[in-house]
Amino acid sequence: MSQPIIISASPHVHSAKTSKKVMYDVVIALIPAFLVSLYVFGISALILTAVAVASCLLFEYLIQKYLLKSEITIGDGSALITGILLAFNLPAGLPIWMILVGSLVAIGIGKMSFGGLGFNIFNPALVGRVFLLVSFPVQMTMWPTAVENNTSIADAVTGATPLGMIKEGLMFGDTMTNISANLPSNMEMFLGISGGSIGEMSALALLLGGIYLLARKVITWHIPVTILVTMAVMTGVFWVIDPESYASPLIHILSGGAILGAFYMATDMVTSPMTRKGMLIFAVGIAVITVVIRLFGAYPEGVSFAILIMNAFVPLINTYFKPRRFGSKIKSKIV
Amino acid sequence: MLKTFPKGGIHPPENKITSSKEIKRMTVPKVVTVPIAQHIGIPAEIVVDRKDKVEIGQVIAKSGGFVSSNIHSPVAGTVTKIDQIIDTSGYKKQCIVIRTDAKNETNFEEKEYPLITEIQLEPKEIVQRISDYGVVGLGGATFPSHVKLNVKEGVELDYLLINGVECEPYLTADHRLMLEKTAEIIVGIKILMKALHISKAVIGIENNKKDAIKQFKELTKEESGIQVAALQVKYPQGGEKQLVRAILGREVPKNGLPLDVGVIVNNVGTVFAVYEAVQHNKPLMERVVTVTGKKMENPSNFWVKIGTPIKDLIAEVGGLPEGTRKLVNGGPMMGKAIKNTDVPVTKGTSGILVISEEEASRGKAENCIRCGECVTVCPMGLEPHLLMNLSEKGMYEKAAAEDIMTCIECGSCSYVCPSHRPLLDYIRFGKSIVKKLETSKN
Question: Could you report the predicted ipTM of this complex, rounded to two decimals?
Answer without folding.
Answer: 0.87
